[in-house]
Design a protein that fits this description.
Elements lengths: L2 H11 L2 H9 L15 H8 L2 H9 L14 H7 L3 H9 L7 E2 L7 E2 H11 L4 H13 L9 H8 L3 H8 L10 E3 L6 E3 L2
Antiparallel strand pairs: 1-2, 3-4
Helix pairs in contact: 1-2, 1-3, 2-4, 3-4, 3-5, 5-6, 5-7, 7-8, 7-9, 9-10
Amino acid sequence: MSINEDLMKAAESGEADTVKKLLDAGADVEAIDRKIGFTALSHGAYSGGEDVVSLLLEHGADVNRQDNLGCPPLFYAVMRGRFHTAKLLLDKGADINAQCGQSSVKRVSILQRIINSGNSAHLYADDMIKRVEFMVEHGADVHSLSVSTLREDYGKYANEMISLLEVKKPPSKEEAVISPSKKWWKFGK
């Protein structure tokens, strides 16, 4: 096993001490896991290891580097409900509105990808709401959402999801005011 493979395994397992030793020994902080295409930072974000994520960032990991699946570490942190890790990534410059996906045809915002993935990940509506609320509270562009995609992905539950998220007709950016309640936005000020 190479030093970079050891780094991936340690990042995935949340072993901060081992990650530090490997980085100090010359492991490549931007290496890609050959098995699934993750960066070490994506592994750390996925597993929720804040210490691991901090170490990788201190050693120069690109906070917005997309893996072979076309997703940045922020996507994995939010999708897994690792909000402290996601906040750390945002504090270090992660782009809340980064695109996610492998081809230009299938690239969507992280927010849209989270919504799209929620159904296949069998998340309950409350879990999905928490993820979406986190994204919106931290500045995700709600105007990038596709109601038709919600209908396609959530089928018979689409109307309930749309109602919960209040994605009936997004206001213009000038009209949009993020609501502190369970709503995404309201009209006016």
